Amino acid sequence: MQNFSDWLAATALSHLFAGLTWFVPVVQTVHILSIAVVVTTLGMLDFRLLRLSRRGPPLSTMAGNFIPWTWRALGVLLVSGILLIITEPARELMNGAFRLKMLLVLLLVLLTFTCQKATAADPDYWSASPGRRRLGGVLGAASLVLCVSIVAAGRLIAYL
Ligand code: HEM
Question: Which DSSP string corresponds to 92-106?
Answer without folding.
Answer: HHT-HHHHHHHHHHH
